[in-house]
Amino acid sequence: MAKVRKLTSNRLKQLVMEEKQKLDSKAREVKAKDMAGTLANKVDYLKALKIHESKLAKKLKRVMKEKARVKSQIMKEL
């Protein structure tokens, strides 16, 4: 098992600084015009998903009605 170290304020500061350096090295600058295109694509995709969701909701409604109809027919035959 690994050696357990006591977490002191100095050790905590050191850990935070190490993680901050890792994040800073991975961060990159993106131009605003590139980000705007990406954002527009995501909004368009969201709209398409909403349309697809409404179509699926209509289909589900039809299926549920049919299911209820068949269930009532079964109950009448019993």
Question: What is the fold's blueprint, element by element?
Answer:
Layout: H1 9-26, H2 32-77
Structural class: mainly alpha
Largest sheet: none
Intertermini distance: 67 Å
- Tell me the fraction of residues in β-strands, as a range: under 5%
Mean pLDDT rating: 88
Helix content: over 70%
The dominant shape is elongated
Low-confidence stretches: none
Secondary-structure element sequence? HH
Write down how many β-strands occur, each being a DSSP E stretch of 2 or more residues.
Answer: 0
Q: List the total number of helices.
A: 2
Supply Rg: 28 Å
Provide a compact summary of the structure.
The chain is built from two helices and no strands. By secondary structure, it is mainly α. The longest helix has 46 residues, at 32-77.
